[in-house]
Predict the 3D structure of the following.
Amino acid sequence: MLTLAVLISGTGSNLRALLEAASHSDFPARVVVVGADRDAPGLAHAEEFGIPTFTVPFHMHESREHWGEEVARQLDVWSPDLIVLSGLMRLLPASVVTRYSPRIVNTHPAYLPEFPGAHGVRDALAAGVTETGASVIVVDDGVDSGPILAQERIPVLPGDTEHSLHERIKPVERRLLIDVVRRIATGDLVLAP
Ligand code: GRF
């Protein structure tokens, strides 16, 4: 059984999809802890499913490095097999990435390497493209630059707002993420830095 730690910052809809998938006995992974860099609304999903949570407020630490070290200490309590960044809006410090790589994956609401960074949906809209996508990658010490594990194209529709486009992307992200976790858990997908 693959054990997962999920890190979030926001509403946690991708987290909820993982929790729901893991609640099925035939899913080969389970979430053992959920962490956040703030009092994220998505922590409520973990509480609903009875999953332990931790919060390491970014602003409580004097540096990204110190914040990252505390996140790592919290993660080490659970020794997860895989760390899933699902809406974590912080870059982990290189020391943390190096410590766990390649056992860290991230979901991103664009067709990487197109539109990396914190505003992938907004940037795709601003670029006027007719299609964007969703991606699941291995986290490296860059910004959304790690090996791509899964991705899928998604159309940009006339009149799309950042919200409407993102809400069309998220279900695809969730499906890709659940499939990647399943493939890692069954050994079909081997993570390499
Ligand atoms: C997802 O699209 C994720 O890829 C991006 O932020 C969004 C988080 O959504 N980094 P949610 O918090 O899972 O609803």
Q: What stands out?
A: The pocket of 5-O-phosphono-beta-D-ribofuranosylamine is lined by residues 8, 10-15, 42, 86-87, 107-109, 170, 173 (CB under 6 Å). Residues 2-186 form a domain with the Rossmann fold fold (CATH 3.40.50.170). Strands lie at 2-8, 29-36, 53-55, 82-85, 104-108, 131-138, 148-155.
